[in-house]
Amino acid sequence: MSAQEIDEYLEGLEEPKRTTLAKLRQMILDVLPEADQGISYGVPAFKVRGKTIAGFAAFTSHLSYLPHSGSVFPQLSDELQGYSTSSGALRFGVDEPLPVPLVKKLIAVRLRQAFPAEDPRSAPPETASPVAADLAGRVRTICMALPEVTERLSHGAPTWFVRGKSAFVTLWAHGHHDHDFPHLWCAGPPGAQHELAAAEPGRFFRPPYVGGRGWIGVRLDRSLDWAEIGELCRDAYRVTAPARLSALLDR
Prior knowledge:
By secondary structure, the chain is α+β, with helices and mostly antiparallel strands. The protein has helices at residues 3-11, 17-31, 100-114, 130-144, 192-199, 226-240, 243-247, and strands spanning 36-40, 43-48, 51-58, 63-66, 84-85, 90-92, 149-154, 157-162, 166-172, 183-186, 204-205, 216-219. It has two domains: 3-114, Alpha-Beta Complex (Aspartate Aminotransferase, domain 1), CATH 3.90.1150.200; 121-250, Aspartate Aminotransferase, domain 1. It has seven helices and twelve strands. Mean pLDDT is 89; it is low at 122-128.
């Protein structure tokens, strides 16, 4: 699969179908920035870890959103009032883009179906601990105060994004892989990871996957200085956000 396949699909459409579906494509990518894009069974599809989460198609007199599951629409019956649907397609006008909130809900339902173990609503009582909830609440307060930040699960962990696209902080409240303690992954300025890990190896570390890009692992099972954690999150935002947004923090 490749994004170019969808580019070519859209280029082959007449207006206003092309523009309407291009907008839908961007909505999907805003929610699923790491999705694999391509053509599946002749129409555009977006996959996460091998599972198709969303898609769309153009027809003679209408367009369709494809959830790739027959049980998505029943969970959104109120939101879909006024739309024509079948078990596998939501039909809409060629010049009537779907609302962004509806697309987000469609994708959220499909993600919960595709990855049920990552749905926080299904977490067993022993994992939905007050400590984890408090950590998430504090980090959320810090990150959501920054300009144009959104939150969603990424690989099962609360993650904060700039404009829905670029992650800058992830919270592993129950640990992750070999790091079985609560911690953050924060994007870091050049050299910060090495400097912090060398100075305080008991608090800071190089995380897996993102460590090669300079991200910083921050332990949350020690005495916490939330002012310092706030600065780390804001530094992560600064190195991720466009310059115009970063400049807003200095006002």
